[in-house]
């Protein structure tokens, strides 16, 4: 008896969803083959789902949101798939496409895992260690402890980057240190800490319209935070321990600050991926409709989530994309096992409607969904209350969004020599 394995790299939104989808909708539909069984192996550096969404509030203070709540064990969510599911705590270090193997470094050994199909769902990291699990929980706790001690003494904070993480962090820190504004109050007259947000463009929050960005700026101002537009952070350096950090700006100005937080976007977690598979941003290049990694030159390799070239990122977009990648995986795999012609492709098409939710402090925020602007109270109800921990964490772990395959319109099969090969 031999076992063929669908390997999924990464266990955040994309990887967890892919694993549940494969167990519920792929394995049960594979043709029976004498002497062969199929299973799913999920590889992730942490044994827990790390709820990175909540880190802007945790960064302000663990009194607002304890770090413990941001770590939720993964394996119990797969108890229903005993015998068909394996979890490997480790980090992928290389892919051998021709040999159909992934090398994974665990705490105790380097191991090789063979795959019949591969899904790359390793996501992205942030430049600041405050928002990313760079190694393990203990390291993040130590980083936060050091940061919070410095924050307690700070009179100035500069944040580079005005996307959601930068804006949320500015709001959380400004409110925690300067307090909430009073009824109908404007900016505090004597804020304890000067919080400055550096925005490289002419407006914050690129996904959202200008008027919503302006509303966000007003809410930040009411908490004692200011925004600098059309300016980039060129460098940040601290000459010695305890000294102020010099933040060099693109206009030639230098800001001296007690704390600098780098929130200038994200970096794909793709260092283990062959360079020929990556685009100029370091993302895994894929067919933008089928999400097959055609650059691999071999069949049945796919990408899902923020590590992929097809997406601008986000959990809402993932709910559109993941069923596409996994349906095409199933189609290709059935054809491979049966030797019959493949079924039709499922195609990805991004939803162009404006959708993003950004808390600013613990009770207000801005956002839009499906092209419609959301009132501040609704932003709080959706995300600002606890950064969706209560609403979304357990459903994400359980793969609730993928309990059913859902209906879709088949597309004509295009034999590109990669996705449909039987090799």
TrEMBL record:
It comes from Periconia digitata. The keyword Oxidoreductase applies. It comes from the Eukaryota. Belongs to the FAD-dependent oxidoreductase family. This is FAD/NAD(P)-binding domain-containing protein. GO terms for molecular function: electron-transferring-flavoprotein dehydrogenase activity; flavin adenine dinucleotide binding. The lineage of its organism: Eukaryota, Fungi, Dikarya, Ascomycota, Pezizomycotina. GO terms for cellular component: cytoplasm. Residues 5-307 form the FAD/NAD(P)-binding domain. Coiled coil: none annotated. The keyword Protein biosynthesis does not apply. InterPro entries: FAD/NAD-bd_sf, FAD/NAD-binding_dom.
């Amino acid at each position: 008896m031999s076992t063929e394995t669908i390997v999924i790299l990464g266990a955040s939104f994309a990887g967890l969803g892919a694993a549940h989808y494969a167990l519920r909708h792929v394995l049960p539909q594979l043709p029976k083959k004498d002497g062969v069984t199929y299973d799913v192996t999920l590889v992730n550096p942490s044994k827990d789902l790390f709820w990175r969404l909540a880190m802007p509030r945790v960064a302000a203070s663990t009194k607002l949101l304890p770090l413990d709540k941001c770590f939720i064990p993964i394996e119990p969510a797969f108890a229903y798939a005993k015998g068909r599911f394996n979890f490997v705590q480790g980090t992928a270090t290389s892919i051998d496409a021709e040999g159909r193997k992934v090398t994974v470094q665990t705490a105790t050994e380097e191991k090789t895992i063979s795959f019949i199909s591969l899904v790359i769902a390793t996501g992205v990291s942030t430049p600041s260690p405050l928002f990313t699990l760079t190694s393990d929980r203990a390291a993040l706790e130590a980083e936060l402890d050091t940061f919070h001690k410095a924050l307690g003494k700070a009179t100035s904070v500069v944040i580079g980057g005005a996307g959601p993480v930068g804006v949320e962090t500015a709001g959380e820190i400004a409110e925690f240190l300067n307090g909430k504004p009073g009824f109908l109050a404007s900016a505090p007259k004597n804020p304890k800490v000067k919080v400055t947000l550096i925005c490289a463009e002419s407006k914050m929050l690129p996904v959202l319209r200008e008027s919503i960005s302006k509303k966000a700026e007003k809410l930040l101002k009411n908490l004692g935070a200011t925004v600098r537009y059309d300016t980039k952070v060129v460098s940040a350096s601290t000459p010695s321990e305890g000294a102020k950090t010099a933040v060099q700006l693109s206009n030639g100005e230098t800001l001296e600050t007690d704390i600098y937080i780098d929130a200038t976007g994200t970096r794909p977690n793709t260092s283990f991926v062959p360079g020929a598979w990556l685009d100029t941003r370091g993302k895994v290049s894929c067919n933008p409709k089928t999400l097959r990694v055609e650059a691999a030159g071999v069949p049945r390799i796919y990408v899902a989530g923020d590590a992929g070239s097809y997406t601008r990122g986000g959990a809402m977009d993932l709910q559109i994309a993941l069923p596409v990648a996994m349906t095409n995986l199933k189609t290709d795999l059935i054809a491979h096992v049966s030797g019959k012609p493949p079924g039709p492709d499922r195609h990805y098409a991004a939803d162009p409607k404006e959708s993003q939710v950004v808390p600013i402090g613990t009770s207000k925020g801005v956002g839009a969904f499906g092209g419609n602007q959301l009132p501040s109270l609704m932003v709080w109800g959706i995300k600002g209350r606890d950064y969706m921990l209560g609403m979304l964490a357990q459903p994400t772990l359980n793969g609730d969004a993928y309990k059913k395959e859902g209906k879709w319109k088949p597309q004509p099969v295009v034999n590109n020599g990669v996705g449909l090969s039987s090799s």
